Amino acid sequence: MMYLAAEEAQNPLLPVWPEIVIGLICFSIVFFVFAKKLLPNINQVLEERREAIEGGIEKADAAQAEAQSVLEQYKAQLAEARHEAARLRQEAQEQGAVIIQEMRAEGQRQREEIIAAGHTQIEADRKAAASALRQDVGSLATVLAGKLVGESLEDHARQSGTVDRFLGELEAKAEAVR
């Protein structure tokens, strides 16, 4: 009973000293094992993860910078291509205008040549017609005069001189009227 009295006399809020010592020893062993074995491994894994994350961020930043650089180059090339296209369009318009002007000048020159050739041909045809008409009028007038007079007036030299003189007088009168 005494044993019970001793237990009863002890305060239940105060722990027993041997249990505290054993608990401290066990805690120290567990703490030592954690500190020496597990904690370095945990720190090493955390450090590797941190480096991997930082490396990934650096790679992403580098990739983003490279993408930005490529985008700027693309924009510069696109602007240059647009400028070149505008320049080529302008040159084509200028060349087109020059070609149109040359074609108009060539058409005008050909038109003038055709008109001049037409005038020359008309003048030649007029002279030929006038010459043929003189001969026909001369021969008809001679035949008619011969029928009126009753004798043949077939002398060519005299006939040509008379007809030419008569037609010359008619042309002079026609020019005087103009």
UniProtKB/TrEMBL annotation:
<feature type="coiled-coil region">
    <location>
        <begin position="57"/>
        <end position="98"/>
    </location>
</feature>
<comment type="subunit">
    <text>F-type ATPases have 2 components, F(1) - the catalytic core - and F(0) - the membrane proton channel. F(1) has five subunits: alpha(3), beta(3), gamma(1), delta(1), epsilon(1). F(0) has three main subunits: a(1), b(2) and c(10-14). The alpha and beta chains form an alternating ring which encloses part of the gamma chain. F(1) is attached to F(0) by a central stalk formed by the gamma and epsilon chains, while a peripheral stalk is formed by the delta and b chains.</text>
</comment>
<dbReference type="InterPro" id="IPR002146">
    <property type="entry name" value="ATP_synth_b/b'su_bac/chlpt"/>
</dbReference>
<keyword id="KW-0175">Coiled coil</keyword>
<keyword id="KW-0406">Ion transport</keyword>
<keyword id="KW-0813">Transport</keyword>
<keyword id="KW-1003">Cell membrane</keyword>
<dbReference type="Pfam" id="PF00430">
    <property type="entry name" value="ATP-synt_B"/>
</dbReference>
<dbReference type="InterPro" id="IPR050059">
    <property type="entry name" value="ATP_synthase_B_chain"/>
</dbReference>
<keyword id="KW-0472">Membrane</keyword>
<keyword id="KW-1133">Transmembrane helix</keyword>
<keyword id="KW-0066">ATP synthesis</keyword>
<comment type="function">
    <text>F(1)F(0) ATP synthase produces ATP from ADP in the presence of a proton or sodium gradient. F-type ATPases consist of two structural domains, F(1) containing the extramembraneous catalytic core and F(0) containing the membrane proton channel, linked together by a central stalk and a peripheral stalk. During catalysis, ATP synthesis in the catalytic domain of F(1) is coupled via a rotary mechanism of the central stalk subunits to proton translocation.</text>
</comment>
<comment type="similarity">
    <text>Belongs to the ATPase B chain family.</text>
</comment>
<keyword id="KW-0375">Hydrogen ion transport</keyword>
<comment type="function">
    <text>Component of the F(0) channel, it forms part of the peripheral stalk, linking F(1) to F(0).</text>
</comment>
<protein>
    <recommendedName>
        <fullName>ATP synthase subunit b</fullName>
    </recommendedName>
</protein>
<feature type="transmembrane region" description="Helical">
    <location>
        <begin position="20"/>
        <end position="39"/>
    </location>
</feature>
<keyword id="KW-0138">CF(0)</keyword>
<keyword id="KW-0812">Transmembrane</keyword>
<dbReference type="InterPro" id="IPR005864">
    <property type="entry name" value="ATP_synth_F0_bsu_bac"/>
</dbReference>
<dbReference type="InterPro" id="IPR028987">
    <property type="entry name" value="ATP_synth_B-like_membr_sf"/>
</dbReference>
